[in-house]
Each structure stands twice: as structure tokens, then as C-alpha cells.
Amino acid sequence: MRRHGEIFSDQLVTQYLPRGPFKADEALGIARRVIEHFITHWEDHGFGVWAVVEKTSGDLIGQCGLNTLAEAPETEVLYLLDRPYWGRGLATEAARSAVDIGFQAVGLHRIVGLTMPDNVASQRVLTKAGLRYERDATFFGVNVRYFAINRPSQNPNHDG
Ligand SMILES: CC(C)(COP(=O)(O)OP(=O)(O)OC[C@H]1O[C@@H](n2cnc3c(N)ncnc32)[C@H](O)[C@@H]1OP(=O)(O)O)[C@@H](O)C(=O)NCCC(=O)NCCS
pLDDT by residue (tens digit) across 119-153? Predict the structure, then answer.
């Protein structure tokens, strides 16, 4: 199992993150600031980003959850897995859970997803989690593909 800072030292993992890929000597500091941000977000909003843990081993394998954007009054779903765990459907499973919790437990009305144009795997995860591509946009000073999903409407006449 790699620690969070070691996962952030892998340039294939961080190549599509804002300011990525991270240099070896900056990755640990960035990982610390990211975790501090996640903790503050939980304290301020009551929801946020979780550690993703493999059920069988209990190992930390990444992060996934909901993050309030600094640049807009919107909440994004985000996810990152350590490389050995790619390609097993785990990011899709985690992102779907985060979206469900965002709508059902947190009560959000809309969740967005931002990916670099070349990050095709991430765009597949967003699509499979129910988000749709809306437009190209600029966030964090970089060009991104902007995906979104609105909270499913409640039908008061629905029997089930
Ligand atoms: C993006 C990431 C989370 C995907 O995790 P994952 O667990 O491998 O994703 P899943 O297995 O749930 O699904 C990935 C989908 O992308 C597809 N995919 C994977 N790599 C791909 C590639 N290089 N090109 C095109 N599609 C790709 C898979 O085939 C799958 O789609 P499918 O089910 O239609 O076949 C993972 O690669 C990662 O952590 N990357 C680094 C961090 C990152 O970029 N996070 C997102 C920032 S916006």
C-alpha cells in the first residue's frame, strides 16, 4: 500500500490534476495541503471527500467525494485512485456513490465534474456516474470539460 503522499508522487496519477504532474519534491507538500483542505471542507460543510479503501485488504487506494468549488457556487464530484487499482470499475463505483449521497443525504441540487480534455478515462467515469458533458470552460486557470447532473426530480404522483 502506498501512502497518500506516495500516490501523489506518481506522475501518471497526477498528470491531469490542476498544476500536475507534480514534481517529486513538491508532491508530499501538495498531498498534505489537499488533506488539510478536505478536513476543513468537512468541518465547514458537513460533507466532503472520503478516503477510498479496498474492502478486502483495508488498504488506502485513493480518494473520492464532493468538493465545493472556490471559483463558482457549485459542488464537484472528484476521484483519484492509485495506479494498481485502475481499470476495475472502482472509480465508477465510488463516483456513483458520491453522487447518490450528494443528492439523497446532502440535498444538493446539482453536481458538476471537471476534467482535462485528454483525460478520457475520467470523462467515462463521469458519464457512467450519470453526468453529461455541457461545455468547455476555464477553471483553476486551465481549460476543462464541464459535466453536470441535476438532482432527479421528485414525482409526487409516483406510487413506488
Ligand atoms: C480516472 C480514474 C479515476 C479512473 O479510474 P478507474 O477505476 O480505472 O475507472 P473505471 O474502471 O471505473 O472506468 C474507467 C473507464 O474509462 C475507460 N478508460 C480507462 N482508461 C482509458 C483511456 N486511457 N482511454 C480511454 N478510456 C479509458 C475504461 O475503459 C472505463 O470505461 P468503460 O467502462 O466504458 O470501458 C483513474 O485513472 C485515476 O485515478 N486517474 C488519475 C487521477 C485522475 O485523473 N482523476 C480525475 C481527475 S478529473
Answer: 999 999 999 999 999 999 999 889 999 999 999 88
Beta strands in the chain, from DSSP E residues, in sequence order: 49-53, 60-68, 75-81, 110-115, 132-139, 142-150
Give the Å distance between the CA of 154 and the centre of ligand 1. 31
- Domains located in the chain, CATH noted: 4-150 (3.40.630.30)
**Residues contacting 38, CB < 8 A, separation 6+:** 48, 49, 63, 65, 67
Cell of 130: 450519470
Q: How far is the CA of 122 from the centre of ligand 1 (A)?
A: 5
pTM of the model: 0.94
